[in-house]
Amino acid sequence: MNNDIRYFTRAERRGIIVLIGLCLLLFLAPAWLPDRSQSAPTDFTALRQQVEAWQAAIQESPNDLVAADGSMPARPQPFDPTNATREQLAAVGLTPTSIRSWLSFTRQNGRFDTWADVEQFRALSPAERTAVQPYLLFSETNQVPLSTPNPEVAATLQNFNPNEVSLADLLAMGIPERAARSWVNYLASGGRFREPAAVGKIYNLAPADFARLQPYITIPAAGALASTETAALPQAFAAIPERVVIDINRATAEEWQQLRGIGPGFSRRIIQLRDQLGGFANVDQVRETYGLPDSVFQSIYLQLRPSPILHTLRINQLNVEELSAHPYLRFNDARLIVRYREAHGAFHHQADLEKLYGLSAEVRQKIAPYLSFE
Asked: Is 95 exposed, middle or buried (0-12, 13-18, 19+ CB in 10 A)?
């Protein structure tokens, strides 16, 4: 047997020859195979014609951009707010929650006759009111300012006791039906006006209507009112308790449960939100309680008394985790505040927050009542 490393057996020599042949075949194969990269160009004529036809349709009718199959997003269109559809409200940018509240209100015979009605609709955020305003169409009769009442109605106005009016009386004074019903419901549930200014807090009552009625509001003195009520009411009603009014920042869970529609669950959630915020800066914040129906909030609105907040947000001392624990600040917002503070020093007033371009104006507005620059 030959042990020379340069010696190959017959089988090895055949294998080498076959391997060399395969290499040559692979090397020369591209020259014989067709070049698929040089395929015929695609004809886009049909697609180009469709695009040109679509552009021509837009120029002819720019307001009709929604296909029948809904393949293109709808653009905002002017609409009657009282008869608005879900699609019209979505097109102007309202959130699903706001749309549901709007449609629920109109289905219960609620109406938007003037812009003042929309402003008093608390389900909309300020940004949503701004977005929807350019697209609202009110009838000409409904666009008459409330500050210029019908002369015939004005002629019928005379001194009256707001605690002793009926629905017909209020309608005769020119009060919108929704505001009149809120007024009557308030009286029917045991509410009483102790001073003329309290009438202005009636839900759905426009400020212009209140200003028109205010000179004619006459409330008897406390003693006269008490004697009149005692003489007029049957003895069976003598034990009815006075309407409960609670302090939104100091009321206990038991006190919250005295309000109609508030049970243990909602009272616990309200107090939890209040503690996380550091107190309610205004009554409207109560409606932010998770799961609280808007109808319940509206029914207790006049029974809520505002008061100073309990705790401030020490923006110059709290760290990222402590700031982000506030319901109005996300983690990214808190981190942005802390990083800016570390780079530029303490905040001295609210205007300093405007330098944080990543902090939205809505967030700055929400946290403004809680800020402390100590």
From this structure: middle
Tokens of 131: 């977005």
Are 232 and 161 in contact by the 8 Å Cβ rule? The answer is no
pTM of the model: 0.40
Q: Which residue has the tokens 């449960």?
A: 257
| Backbone phi and psi for residue 322, each to the nearest 5 degrees, phi listed first | -70, -40
* pLDDT in 10s for each residue of the chain, 374 residues: 555 666 778 888 899 899 999 998 888 887 777 666 555 667 777 777 778 777 765 554 444 444 444 444 456 778 888 888 888 888 888 888 889 888 888 887 778 888 878 887 878 888 888 888 878 887 544 443 333 444 445 445 788 898 888 887 888 888 888 788 888 878 876 778 888 888 888 877 888 888 888 888 888 875 444 445 554 555 444 444 567 899 999 999 999 999 989 999 999 999 999 999 999 999 999 999 999 998 889 889 889 999 898 889 999 999 999 999 999 999 999 999 999 999 989 998 888 888 888 888 899 999 999 998 88
Q: Which residues contact 367 (CB under 8 A, 6 or more apart)?
A: 313, 326, 328, 329
